[in-house]
Every structure is written in structure tokens, then in C-alpha cells.
Design brief:
The protein is about 0% helix and about 50% strand. It is mostly beta strands. A hairpin with a 6-residue loop joins strand 4 (about 35-40) and strand 5 (about 45-50).
């Protein structure tokens, strides 16, 4: 089964950038859709961005609140998925989770992103 480990979270000032990485192991994920979700305190986990499998040409989808600020990408050779965050806002503060597949959907343990001055 796929195991996912996120890295790259941290504290950043409003307007700053971060790069989140998700390393997959256990299985090749090129046939799986990969996604990033986030969950703020007291809120439900919600989809941030998704990238399709290689069969879909890696089609991407972004939640409306992203507004062109984030970019999802994948490296099938390295079995990784990346989320580049820019123009960060305080409301982007959350734990960011990487996921693989749809049913079943596999989750990483998350990476904290805090946007604060």
C-alpha cells in the first residue's frame, strides 16, 4: 500500500511562499490521482488542488479560493507531488495533507503551514 510523507511546511509572513512536497513509497503512484487538502482548526478538511494520473495527462484542478496562487505538480520518476504556495494569506493557515487515489483514498500525516506576521 502507498505511504505518503509531507514536508516543507513552516511559518511564513503574509505574501510569502512555501513549497510543500509529498514523497510516496510502497507503490508507484503514476496511475493514481494525487491531491492536496487542508484543514484549519475547527474546520473540515477541504480540497486545495488535484492532479490526475498519467493517463489523464496530469490534468489539474484548483479550489476557487486558490485564485491562481498555488501550483500542483508531480514527478512520476521520483514518485513525488509538490504544491507551490505563493501570495499566502493568514486564512491559508492550516495543516496540509497529501492524498493518493480516490477509493481507497490514502493520506499522509500532514504538514503545518502558518501564515502570520
Amino acid at each position: 500500500q502507498v505511504q505518503l510523507v509531507e514536508s516543507g511546511g513552516g511559518l511564513v509572513q503574509p505574501g510569502g511562499s512555501l513549497r510543500l512536497s509529498c514523497a510516496a513509497s510502497g507503490e508507484d503512484t503514476k496511475m493514481l490521482a494525487m491531491a492536496w487538502y487542508h484543514q484549519a482548526p475547527g474546520e473540515q478538511r477541504e480540497l486545495v488542488a488535484r492532479i490526475g494520473n498519467t493517463g489523464s495527462g496530469g490534468a489539474t484542478y484548483y479550489a476557487d479560493f486558490v485564485q491562481g496562487r498555488f501550483t500542483i505538480s508531480r514527478d512520476v520518476d521520483k514518485n513525488t507531488v509538490t504544491l507551490q504556495l505563493s501570495m499566502l494569506r493568514p486564512e491559508d493557515t492550516a495543516i496540509y495533507y497529501c492524498s493518493a487515489g480516490i477509493s481507497p483514498q490514502i493520506w499522509g500525516r500532514g504538514a503545518q503551514v502558518t501564515v502570520s506576521s
